Amino acid sequence: SISTKMATRESVDVFIALDISYSMLAQDIAPSRMERAKRFTENLIQGLRGERLGLILFAGNAYLQMPLTTDYAAASLFTKSANPYQAPTPGTAIGDALELAMNSFDEESESDKVVIVITD
Fold this sequence. Notes:
Blueprint: E1 12-19, H1 33-47, E2 52-58, E3 62-69, H2 72-81, H3 94-104, E4 112-118
Parallel strand pairs: 1-2, 1-4
Antiparallel strand pairs: 2-3
């Protein structure tokens, strides 16, 4: 007898925390760290279609740019426009970004929860 097992895939809620500090403007990686990070984030957004995505931008403080959603066009637009001039406080507050992500997840959701930090 042949037994079959159905594979089920759990949904995932993903916050992408993108560093927009001034150091990301360095051009030691062409064309710049910021542009490379934004391209990576764009590819990530495309690869995560079907999941709920949120976007946090951070430098000296963390900002919830986009709450969890399936609006990939908005995620892409916010990513493309991300730049250091959106963050008035210099620095790299990774801890604040993580805390903001954790506090922004829907506690009622049974989805797995993931935070991806993109920084230099």
